[in-house]
UniProtKB/TrEMBL annotation, chain A:
<dbReference type="Pfam" id="PF02653">
    <property type="entry name" value="BPD_transp_2"/>
</dbReference>
<keyword id="KW-0812">Transmembrane</keyword>
<feature type="transmembrane region" description="Helical">
    <location>
        <begin position="31"/>
        <end position="52"/>
    </location>
</feature>
<comment type="similarity">
    <text>Belongs to the binding-protein-dependent transport system permease family. LivHM subfamily.</text>
</comment>
<keyword id="KW-1003">Cell membrane</keyword>
<feature type="transmembrane region" description="Helical">
    <location>
        <begin position="219"/>
        <end position="247"/>
    </location>
</feature>
<dbReference type="InterPro" id="IPR001851">
    <property type="entry name" value="ABC_transp_permease"/>
</dbReference>
<dbReference type="GO" id="GO:0006865">
    <property type="term" value="P:amino acid transport"/>
</dbReference>
<feature type="transmembrane region" description="Helical">
    <location>
        <begin position="93"/>
        <end position="111"/>
    </location>
</feature>
From TrEMBL, chain B:
<dbReference type="Pfam" id="PF13458">
    <property type="entry name" value="Peripla_BP_6"/>
</dbReference>
<dbReference type="InterPro" id="IPR051010">
    <property type="entry name" value="BCAA_transport"/>
</dbReference>
<dbReference type="GO" id="GO:0006865">
    <property type="term" value="P:amino acid transport"/>
</dbReference>
<keyword id="KW-0732">Signal</keyword>
<protein>
    <submittedName>
        <fullName>ABC transporter substrate-binding protein</fullName>
    </submittedName>
</protein>
<dbReference type="InterPro" id="IPR028081">
    <property type="entry name" value="Leu-bd"/>
</dbReference>
<keyword id="KW-0813">Transport</keyword>
<keyword id="KW-0029">Amino-acid transport</keyword>
<dbReference type="InterPro" id="IPR028082">
    <property type="entry name" value="Peripla_BP_I"/>
</dbReference>
Length: 283, 394
């Protein structure tokens, strides 16, 4: 039982790391970014390349995955996304799903369609046993990273000047400009933060779920579920939603494998019927 | 769309009668239908590379006639597209032979064209048992899923030292076929299946399934998951849950320990026992030469897709030699029946009754050799026929 809970929690942390960036961009900036997982894939491929081709240690590649995804996303934000901030949802969806498909083709062209892996250091492998329960070491690591990211994000967005600027820019752009906030720069930075987190999540996901060019679409479903269940724009909501989905997924597969993989959709439906705006949705 | 297909079909039929009357001269045309793009592109690449290598080594002239290839991309699981491409190849391009086919639905769809247009067809991978019954002009040079899994199931119960297994398979056609074959043969040989789980096909995390298997405490676990990202994910779940394949025996079909999967699993894979028809580490002069040439050309080991393509080409060349370059389907398929040759995978032959491949199924264990984690063959089941069609005869 505790083992199942732990596995679910760790899986939830992975989902959280993958989706929290979208919660930031979609929730805070109202931008429907279906290319979110493409940035995650970028982080993943960077880690694979650095580890396998250049012999970097796995842990050292993680900040690089964050930075690379953040930097690339700023370029896209300046060139493409910015023009569509006030466009309709449909326009945003079309642009970003197109980008997702392009990223799949690009990844397949550069890296081939073969499944990629990045060996983790030996101290992150295997499992340790407490009271007869196996805790995967890598999962413990995921939980630690997930909690740290949550803490940093909540503190940044709630208590720093940057966080206040973001919230002001989102709530009332004209007023924010009037107060001397550089709204463009704030949006770019927010977008970079969200995509960087996706890159980090992509790099961390390799060990659990692997990486191939279809990553950009495969995990989009999970990410959208987490964000919609959590409620747009709420970091804490995404966190709780990710844990709920992770635990119900793992528990479902363990106790009722016949419906196992369907259970997360059931949980999503029930939660959204109860709270249509998501657990912590404001709108 | 439907009208268009119908139109092509009618045109195809008309053109065929016309084509059959006038014997073709000039080059022999071979149409290759493969998923060059999309999710299965890697399989297509591995297979096509073997085809190219075969032609490079054996020349592009057989029985005095030049060989010409026309390649078509089917893009994935798309039987309607495969059928349309096969029709186009036959009608517009006038091919004499259809080949390729990584995926079962595509092979079945093109099988109809082979049957109606009377074209020799060589299936180089698609592994569902019944495919070859779709056309009397079809031959297979790869494997059938029951062939491998029933051989493995019987072996596990008789020589594997395991009487109680738990089976885990992805919930889709090939998974159900493979698990069904293994369980059937395992039970027939006196074993007991103590439980079974069907897992979602697109399943990223196996920890819960593996934990449940462990809690039931079986002597062995049988597993089938689609190749690609899933085998390593499964292997990692095994090691994380503390299942040691050296204690609880883990059985599966060969893809779960292919090159990419082993690289990603590392030591976690040690001890996993698989049944399969080909591995680049198979020890024979023929295979050594094949692997070396393949690596020299493409910087990568060949896999079972490659060997299926290689042997498909071998068969096509052999039968064309036997018919003296004549390409009528009946002549070619008659020449193929009962063919025997030495493949990189070992001795193989074509069953004259079912036109399916007869081959040895190797039992391999993952071991560390010279610091590398590889599949080591330690036993084999010789000359295995497709068991499903054997039963259909009765």
């Amino acid at each position: 039982m505790i083992g199942v809970l732990f596995d679910g929690f760790a899986y939830g942390m992975l989902l959280f790391l993958l989706s929290v960036g979208l919660s930031v961009t979609l929730g805070m900036m109202n931008f429907v970014n279906l290319a979110h997982c493409a940035f995650a894939m970028l982080g993943g491929y960077l880690t694979v390349t650095l580890v396998n081709r250049f012999g970097w240690p796995f842990l050292a590649t993680l900040p690089m995955a964050f930075l690379a995804a953040a930097l690339v996303s700023v370029v896209f934000e300046r060139l493409l996304y910015r023009k569509l901030y006030r466009a309709t949802d449909l326009d945003q969806v079309l642009l970003t799903i197109g980008l997702a498909f392009m990223s799949i083709a690009t990844a397949a062209y550069i890296f081939g369609t073969v499944h990629q892996s990045a060996p983790t250091p030996s101290f992150l492998r295997g499992s340790i046993e407490y009271f007869g329960i196996n805790f995967g070491v890598y999962r413990l690591f995921l939980v630690a990273v997930g909690l740290a990211v949550t803490l940093v994000l909540v503190l940044t967005l709630e208590y720093t000047r940057f966080g206040q600027q973001v919230r002001a820019a989102v709530d009332n752009q004209r007023m924010a400009r009037g107060l001397g906030i550089n709204v463009d720069a704030t949006f770019a930075a927010t977008f970079a933060l969200g995509s960087g987190l996706a890159g980090l999540g992509g790099a961390l996901a390799i060990e659990i779920v692997g990486l191939d060019p279809s990553f950009a679409l495969t995990y989009l479903v999970y990410v959208l579920i987490v964000v919609s269940v959590g409620g747009l724009g709420s970091i804490l909501g995404s966190f709780i939603a990710a844990v709920l989905i992770g635990v119900s997924d793992i528990a479902g597969k363990y106790y009722v494998p016949e419906v196992g993989a369907f259970l997360i959709y059931l949980v999503m439906i029930l939660l959204l019927m109860w709270r249509p705006a998501g657990l912590f949705g404001k709108r | 769309m439907f009208k268009k297909v119908l139109g092509i079909g009618a045109f195809a039929a008309a053109a065929l009668f016309a084509g059959a009357a006038t014997a073709q001269q000039g080059p022999i045309k071979i149409g290759i239908i493969l998923p060059y793009s999309g999710q299965f592109a890697d399989a297509a690449t591995q297979m096509d590379n073997a085809i190219k290598l075969f032609v490079k080594q054996n020349g592009d002239t057989v029985a005095g006639r030049k060989i010409e290839f026309i390649r078509k991309d089917v893009g994935g699981i798309a039987p309607d597209v495969a059928k349309r491409l096969a029709q186009e190849l036959v009608v517009r391009d006038g091919v004499d032979i259809l080949t390729g086919f990584v995926l079962t639905p595509n092979a079945i769809a093109a099988g109809d064209v082979s049957d109606q247009a009377k074209k020799f067809m060589v299936v180089m991978n698609a592994a569902t048992s019944i495919i070859t019954t779709k056309s009397p002009y079809m031959v297979r040079t790869s494997l059938t899923t029951p062939q491998i899994n029933e051989a493995l199931g019987k072996w596990a119960a008789t020589k594997g030292g395991v009487k109680k297994v738990y089976t885990m398979a992805s919930d889709y056609g090939p998974g159900l076929d493979a698990e069904g074959g293994f369980s059937r043969a395992f039970k027939e040989a006196g074993g007991e299946v103590i439980g079974s789980v069907k897992m979602a096909v697109a399943n990223p995390d196996f920890s819960a399934y593996v934990q449940r298997a462990k809690d039931l405490n079986p002597e062995g676990i049988y597993v089938f998951v689609p190749g690609g990202a899933q085998p390593p994910a499964f292997g990692k779940a095994l090691s994380e849950r503390g299942i040691d394949p050296k204690k609880i025996k883990v059985f599966g079909q060969g893809e779960i320990t292919d090159d990419a999967a082993l690289k990603s699993m590392g030591d976690a894979a040690l001890g996993i026992i698989t049944g399969f028809h080909y591995d680049p580490n198979h020890k024979s002069a023929k295979n050594d030469a094949f692997v070396k040439a393949f690596n020299a050309e493409y910087k990568r080991n060949p896999d079972f897709f490659s060997v299926g393509g290689w042997d498909g080409m071998q068969l096509i060349y052999d039968v064309l030699k036997k018919t003296g370059g004549k390409t009528d389907a009946q002549g070619l398929v008659d020449a193929a029946k009962g063919s025997k040759w030495e493949s990189p995978r070992g001795p193989i032959s074509i069953d004259p009754e079912t036109r399916d491949i007869i081959q040895d199924v190797y039992i391999r264990r993952v071991e560390k050799v010279d610091g590398k984690v590889v599949n080591v063959e330690f036993d084999k089941v010789e000359a295995v026929k497709d068991p499903v069609k054997e039963r259909m005869k009765k």
